[in-house]
Amino acid sequence: MSNTVVDNITTRAVKADKHILLPEPADTRILQATEQIIAKNYAKISLLGNAEEITALAAECGANIEGAEIIDPMTDADRDTLIDKLYEKRKAKGMSREDVDKLLAGTVYYGAMLVGAGRADGMVAGSICPTGETVRAAIYGVGLSEGNRTVSSCSIMNTIVEEIGVDGSVIFADTGVLPEPTVEQLADIGIAASAAARALLDVEPVTAMLSFSTKGSAKSPAVDKVIDATKIIQQRRPDLKVDGELQLDAAVIPEIGQKKAPDSSVAGYANTLVFPDLSCGNIGYKLVERLGRATALGPLLLGLAKPVNDLSRGCSVEDIVLITAITAVQGL
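^ thats the sequence. predicted structure below, dont judge the formating
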């Protein structure tokens, strides 16, 4: 990652003074990361689980978690209230109160409910549980951001082309969640990705809706979908600088953007790239990472009312520390 981008994120995290939940302290990486997060003052941390078990494991692995709060979902004073709250939300879907009680025995689901209830500013999970569980917990407990109906994701790509984005760092979306977005979902992704650029790169978003066509150079239903999604964004959020359909070169290379889309305020200067579907986004970010010698951070979840992020189960302690700082900044 660009040192400029990482330094900016961590500096802002310290100033933000947010409260982040880590619901998987049975993983020693979480405990070791907790020590570093507290030492660096990136966030206030609460660990979820049995206090005796967590304390014993921390001692066993040599992690100093002094300063972290421990919340036990089974004895927490708000447990019954949160069970009632989730039951009211899910009973129409056939979930019984007993089902909810069992579900909230899980620390990831309980943590998401605590974030939704305002007892924390965000959550980082996924070192143990699958991505689907993290996303489901976030939808149940936190819900979607106002006016949005789509959970998606982005990756911060730090490329070796320093004149692009912020010292080469660009937002790619969606890189991890929604395989075949509808026109409306693609519009949601564009708006959420723009917000991510503002929060994570600390710049005004300049968002390109990508295609294999630039301004009518090709005709296809796939192109029409990108055009229609762009129009929806421009109607919903006229304050955003968004344009499409644009090919990748027209989006990020000024000379090509001026030639292919001379009337566009985005072409040539995009710092946020929205792909037409997950195949393009996922393949695109891995191509840039593996063949273009870029580094990738993410996918990070987008579209939630409060930030929840998913870890790779192969994550390092350093990954957990930085994702926690990012989660704190996303909440600004």
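Residues 67 and 319 are 21 Å apart (CA to CA).
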